[in-house]
């Protein structure tokens, strides 16, 4: 939490504005790896290169092939507005407080913050993808539409119904706790699923899958979510869904 960029190179702004060529970056990185193979593994250089000439170019292809109708897709028919704390960072959820606050202050957040904290919350809370697109495009310094909208409306919000990715990227508080130290100093308890201090991510996670059962249940990559949901005791499931409904009715107060 104390390192705002972690291990990210922060080259996306220069690449997306065409100040740096992707081939220039890849060639330089590969040459450095070749000269330092005793300290840099092939897995490390492969992951870096793949993001640039793999995923980034895949996003470019999706944009040119799917626009302009891609911009109108809303697979889950989400309608909620962004909570007001997206413009202030003032929320009791420490992960969102930190990630949104950093985004507002630095115009930058790394992959996990964008996808699995901010994007995850927007998806679970049913925020309209138009609002998510506009926020990401307006906040981040590297957000040029061809790369922003395909990642946001596609990968993050699954509003395209599976054009970009094969499953929604969703997670409960357990994932956020494993990937960060946000939960240790949060108002909410990441272990609690119901109650006054239950982390909103927990009940919203299950509510998302329950309300979208007809659209997602046959997806082979997330079948276990429904196996778990269907094995849940009826009273526990009822309380979880009621907790989520309460949170959804007062998103600005979270």
Topology of this structure?
Elements: H1 12-16, H2 22-35, H3 42-66, H4 94-106, H5 111-124, H6 129-139, H7 145-156, H8 173-179, H9 200-211, H10 213-216, H11 223-231, H12 234-248
Helix pairs in contact: 2-3, 3-7, 4-5, 6-7, 9-12
Please give a structural write-up.
- This protein is an all-alpha fold and 254 residues long.
- The chain folds into two domains: 1-191, DNA Cyclobutane Dipyrimidine Photolyase, subunit A, domain 3, CATH 1.10.579.10; 192-253, Orthogonal Bundle (Arc Repressor Mutant, subunit A).
- It contains twelve helices and no strands.
- It has helices spanning 12-16, 22-35, 42-66, 94-106, 111-124, 129-139, 145-156, 173-179, 200-211, 213-216, 223-231, 234-248.
- α3 (42-66) crosses α7 (145-156), α6 (129-139) crosses α7 (145-156) and α9 packs across α12 (234-248).
- The protein is globular and about 60 Å long.
Q: Features of this protein?
A:
mainly alpha, 2 domains, Arc Repressor Mutant, subunit A, DNA Cyclobutane Dipyrimidine Photolyase, subunit A, domain 3, 254 residues, 0% strand
Sum up the overall morphology in one term: globular
Number of strands: 0
Report the CATH topology name of the largest domain. Answer: DNA Cyclobutane Dipyrimidine Photolyase, subunit A, domain 3
Uncertain spans, ≥5 residues at pLDDT below 50? none
| Mean model confidence by pLDDT | 94
Indicate how many domains the architecture comprises. 2
Supply the helix-strand structural class: mainly alpha
User: What's the name of the CATH homologous superfamily of the largest domain?
Assistant: DNA Cyclobutane Dipyrimidine Photolyase, subunit A, domain 3
Radius of gyration: 19 Å
CATH class of the largest domain: Mainly Alpha
What is the architecture of the largest domain at the second tier of CATH?
Orthogonal Bundle
Largest sheet: none
The fraction of residues in strands falls at under 5%
Q: How many helices does DSSP assign? A: 12
The separation of the N and C termini measures 20 Å
Order of helices and strands: HHHHHHHHHHHH
Q: Helix proportion of residues, in percent?
A: 55-70%
């Amino acid at each position: 939490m104390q390192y705002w960029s972690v291990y990210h190179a922060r080259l996306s702004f220069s690449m997306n504005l065409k100040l740096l060529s992707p081939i220039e970056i890849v060639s330089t990185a590969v040459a450095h790896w070749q000269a330092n193979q005793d300290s840099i593994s092939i897995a490390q250089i492969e992951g870096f290169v793949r993001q640039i000439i793999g995923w980034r170019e895949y996003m470019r292809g999706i944009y040119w092939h799917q626009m302009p109708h891609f911009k109108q897709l809303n697979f889950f028919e989400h309608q909620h507005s962004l909570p007001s704390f997206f413009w202030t960072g003032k929320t009791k959820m420490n992960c969102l407080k930190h990630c949104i606050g950093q985004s507002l202050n630095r115009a930058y957040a790394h992959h996990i913050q964008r996808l699995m904290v901010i994007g995850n919350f927007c998806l679970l809370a049913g925020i309209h993808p138009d609002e998510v697109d506009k926020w990401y495009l307006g906040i981040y310094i590297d957000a040029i539409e061809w790369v922003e909208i395909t990642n946001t409306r596609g990968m993050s919000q699954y509003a395209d119904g599976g054009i970009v990715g094969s499953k929604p990227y969703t997670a409960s508080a357990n994932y956020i706790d494993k990937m960060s130290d946000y939960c240790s100093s949060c108002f909410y308890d990441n272990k609690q699923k119901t109650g006054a201090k239950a982390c909103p991510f927990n009940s919203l996670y299950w509510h998302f899958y329950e309300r979208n059962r007809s659209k997602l249940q046959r997806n082979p990559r997330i079948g276990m979510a429904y196996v778990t949901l269907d094995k849940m005791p009826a009273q526990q499931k009822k309380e979880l869904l009621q907790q989520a409904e309460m949170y959804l009715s007062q998103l600005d107060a979270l």
